[in-house]
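Figure 6 in text form: structure in, sequence out.
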């Protein structure tokens, strides 16, 4: 379970989000700081490596302390990686069960400045990626949290639904299976989707699984149904381009669900 740490509160939030994932899988929580410096310590001037290492160690200590404060039993590993941030995180993803990164915004502007790493991970990592949203306010549990999953007639839908079910059970949430207009072009496809959802309900009777259809895309659906608290959106890798529309910037999320996290499944 790998988490990219960069010194931001968003990255610490990602580390805390990943704790339950690591505990559930019984795997170490690996916190990594990528320096962004292409030179190895023996090749760069001393002051360059000294500052990079000192800052990285400070960031990792802070994140590790927050993880330890949860009181949950999880083995934590830390590492400083030398090289370009995105390429090093992608390399980490090749052997990771999941990669978690924070986001302070990956909209049109911030995607070029603050959230380019999150964008690159959702598009290029080789394991499931979660962009963990740093909330601007604390939500209460007065309302049922939802794990929203995009469903259609593609081959990977059953696997995607399985991931959503696992996440809902782990986080005490309900599952909302959203079928977009494109997969419901005929009565036959609609009936087939109904049967599949019912099969999921029968297999997971302990969870509330609700099915809805929308004539719009998933980001637009989230805008129109802002009364419910969405904790996590689960997307297939082919729909990774929707992450930007769902999350938006930190200060001004493109949609009201800009505070939810998004998982891209591979």
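Output sequence:
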């Amino acid at each position: 379970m790998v988490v990219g740490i960069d010194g931001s509160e968003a990255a610490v939030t990602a580390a805390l989000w990943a704790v339950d994932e690591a505990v559930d899988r019984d795997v170490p929580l690996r916190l990594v700081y990528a320096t962004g410096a292409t030179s190895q310590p023996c090749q760069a001037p001393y002051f360059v490596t000294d500052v990079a290492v000192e800052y990285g160690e400070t960031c990792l200590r802070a994140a590790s302390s927050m993880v330890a404060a949860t009181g949950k039993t999880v083995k934590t590993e830390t590492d400083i990686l030398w090289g370009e941030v995105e390429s090093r995180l992608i390399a980490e993803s090749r052997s990771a069960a999941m990669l978690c990164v924070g986001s302070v915004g990956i909209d049109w502007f911030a995607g070029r400045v603050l959230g380019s790493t999150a964008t690159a991970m959702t598009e290029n990592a080789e394991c499931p990626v979660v962009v963990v949203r740093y909330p601007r306010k604390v939500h209460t549990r007065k309302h049922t949290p939802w794990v929203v999953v995009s469903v259609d007639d593609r081959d990977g839908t059953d696997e995607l639904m399985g991931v959503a079910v696992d996440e809902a059970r782990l986080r005490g949430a309900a599952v909302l299976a959203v079928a977009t207009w494109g997969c419901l072009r005929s009565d036959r496809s609609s009936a087939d989707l109904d049967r599949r959802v019912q099969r999921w309900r029968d297999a997971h009777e302990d969870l509330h699984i609700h099915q809805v259809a929308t004539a719009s895309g998933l980001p637009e659906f989230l805008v129109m149904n802002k009364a419910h608290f969405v904790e996590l959106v689960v997307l297939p890798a082919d729909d990774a381009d929707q992450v930007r529309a769902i999350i938006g910037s930190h200060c001004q999320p493109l949609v009201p669900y800009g505070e939810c996290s998004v998982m891209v499944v591979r």
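Caption detail: The first strand starts at residue 2 and ends at 4.
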